[in-house]
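Human: If only I could read backbone structure tokens as easily as an amino acid sequence. Underneath my words sits a plain record pairing an amino acid chain with its backbone structure tokens. Take your time, and here it is.
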Amino acid sequence: MMLSSTREFWFWWHLMLMQYVLVKFFSHRPVDVHNVYNAVQIKLLMRTTELSVPEYDEVFRDEDNDSDNDNISDNSDDESSRKRKRFDDEAIERRMQRRKWEENRNEVLFKYMQFSTYGTSSALLMFELTWKMSKDSNDLLWLAIIGVTDQYIHYKTPREKYIEDVMALQSHVSRLNHRDDDELISINCLKIMYEDELQLSLYRHWSLFESVCHSINMAAKLKLWTLKGQKRLHEFLAEMGLPLTQCKQKFTAMDTSLKMDIRTKIQQSMNKYGLVDEDIILPSFFAQYGFKNRLCATDVAMVTAAILENWEKSNTPTDSFFKSLDVLTRSNTTVMENGLELAKKQLQAIITQVQTFLDMHQVISAGPFLYAFIQEGAVDVRLFACHQCIMRLARFTLEAHCSVSRNKKSGNLPLVLGVPMNNDKGTILVIGIPPLSMDDDRKNFFGKAFEQAALSTNCRTSHNSFDTFIMEMKSEDRSKFFDALISLLNE
């Protein structure tokens, strides 16, 4: 569909580029009640099924027209005295009613704001808007796919919600990529395909062996950070008929006969090693442009996140932002290749840190939750002081700990993880994630818990993250903050 003007085209194009990076801004739930009931300045773009807010009268109250300071005559006659007494009684009644309303309001808002979740990706919503305006295209559809994929690989939405969004996207993929046999298409045009994908991190751009070792699902199930786990992996590969020499070289260099049936071979052998389809297979999409450029949505989402959080001394956040746009627009293959290396570096750092946690027994039970802290001066600590990376680190730490713990209750315990953030300011980045048993809805209660614990202890904290369950705090306040958090969650 051709747009009416060049300016209009670039407006929609940049809007869709930006919405991937801003996806977390718009998909957070719950929505602030002031945004919901402000019909003048604020407009909400979301599905009505995801909007469930308290009634207006429960959270907003019009000011009484009457004032406690109404002028009443000071005459000493009986009529004046009766008016004064009646006025005082009414004022007391109004104050009692207001106090009761405020108590109910606080309770209603607490229940409403208690859990933080994510709704439909803003990337998908923006694409559906362009579709309804007859301005959709494959390029915009690909950005919507990346936004939905990003939510899933960073544990923002459960698998069931991801599958629901994928099914909605698949219909658009079929519609926009259906071509008649006699219709010629340039090889450089973007083509999108739906296909089941192996949940192996960046395996097309890595060796199969390294990819398996750095994939959270596989690593946690096989305990690949141990010698016994490595032995099980070698047995697993041998049972599939994959020589170790082939698996340790780059995937693109493997024998074609081995690569073609890799998914079937894994599915045939996975049950023996405690793996299920959800650990191995993920419905996803591929983008094809040119002869060599075939990219999976999960790879692109991971690379984009790695580039956005690449805040090295020679790299500013603005630089990272524009480089991530280069990845999304496919205009710079060099940036994509550098991003793949950054993503691999993050995965390697996560695996190494989790192994350190487990070897040093640094994942400790505080009663109502587990906690772990990275020591100052640890290798690659700066990588973890970013929201997406610390989220993956926390998740893998929890899965790995539960896989080796003898405590059967560990699967029902959440995790709090701390990472040194700024040594000059003496601050740490703290994240709280829900237990594995809550994977079906992924509701996170740490936002309110952090806020109340900090308020009760006067800890110096900063809650300026769009994710309420991630905050920054002073290192010296850590002990009293955690004592308050333990008391709060024990109630």
